[in-house]
Amino acid sequence: MPPATRFGLTVPLTGVPLGEHPELFRRAEAAGYDDLWTGETNGADGFTPLAVAAAVTERVRLGTGVVNPYTRGPSVLAQHAAALQDASGGRFVLGIGSSSNVIVERWNDVPFEKPLTKVREAVQQLKPVLAGERGQGGFKLEAAPATRIPIIIAALRGKMLALAAEEGDGAFSNWLPLSGVGQIRDAFGAPEKELVCRFFCIPQPAEEAMGLAKWMFAAYGTVGVYAEFFRWLGWGERIDPMVEAWQAGNRAEALELVPEELIREIFFFGTPEEMRERATAFVEAGITTLVLTPIAPPEQLPSLIDALAP
User: Fold this and answer.
1) Which residues lie closer than 8 Å to 277 by C-beta, 6 or more apart?
2) Letter string b/e over residues 67-104, b meaning 16 or more CB atoms within 10 A of that residue's CB
């Protein structure tokens, strides 16, 4: 039986200081959201916003969406996870993934090697430690989590999706076009497990928001792991000219070459009602947990959070 549909938010919200988030966290919980999921790129780290949220919420699930096993070892990841599980009263979910060569290697000077193996080994090392057993080098948590911590594995293509089905409690996708959900779902092959995906919500007509959306997409879609993802989904001929221009330093040309059809498949545009209709289409296609990322000025975020609530 498939998991129940869940609606979450990406936190922290862009443009809002972390110290001003408690009110927004309470607002999201009161509005009916099921989850709060962080990211970890060049803003806040993946754990601190959840610690803030744990202190001011009572019901919502708190997940990292996602952290990677290159820049933190398994023992440190276990400490983070156990601390948040304790602080939240058992509401934490560890979302873990390989990240990208840009974040791992270029920004952190750690070789981005064998991502599939790295994630597999990290998850296999984490499981016994989070269960209170000894792990790598004899490491053991001072106190094991009182309740089991689910592990969601970020996965874009076949082998990582298979790993998520085998070793995880679910898979976490990103930048997913509607036409690609079936391919992701079939490669995952675990209908009883959670299939999470992040969605970018711009409350403007597509024509008005297209410039912003193209820039956001180009910055991600030209990174190696994402370029391979879109090629795997059958978009290679459409994105390769964009990737080539971006890598050559021709940003303006790359933006002109972003395939608009793909942008319309990935982003949620328009009114809250139109975005909810879009969310329904992804649920019907097989996504079980939708992580909404509102893209709007800070003063518009409270009302947009309310308007997008399940």
Assistant:
1) none
2) bbbbbbebbebbbbbbbbbeebeebbbbbbbbbbbbbb
Other Cβ atoms within 10 Å of 227 Cβ, number: 20
Please say whether the beta carbons of 175 and 229 come within 8 A: yes
Q: Provide CATH 3.20.20.30 ranges for the chain.
A: 6-203+270-308
Q: Provide the sign of the torsion angle of the four alpha carbons 150, 152, 158, 159, taken in this order.
A: negative
Gyration radius (Cα) of the chain, Å:
19
Yes or no: say if 167 and 124 are a contact pair by the CB < 8 Å rule: yes
CATH superfamily of 6-203+270-308: Luciferase-like domain (3.20.20.30)
Per residue of the chain (310 residues), give pLDDT as tens: 889 999 999 999 999 999 999 999 999 999 999 999 999 999 999 999 999 999 999 999 999 999 999 999 999 999 999 999 999 999 999 999 999 999 999 999 999 999 999 999 999 999 999 999 999 999 999 999 999 999 999 999 999 999 999 999 999 999 999 999 999 999 999 999 999 999 999 999 999 999 999 999 999 999 999 999 999 999 999 999 999 999 999 999 999 999 999 999 999 999 999 999 999 999 999 999 999 999 999 999 999 999 999 9
Q: Kindly report the pTM of this predicted structure.
A: 0.97
3-state SS of 230-292?
HHHCCCHHHHHHHHHHHHCCCHHHHHHCCCHHHHHHHCEECCHHHHHHHHHHHHHHCCCEEEE
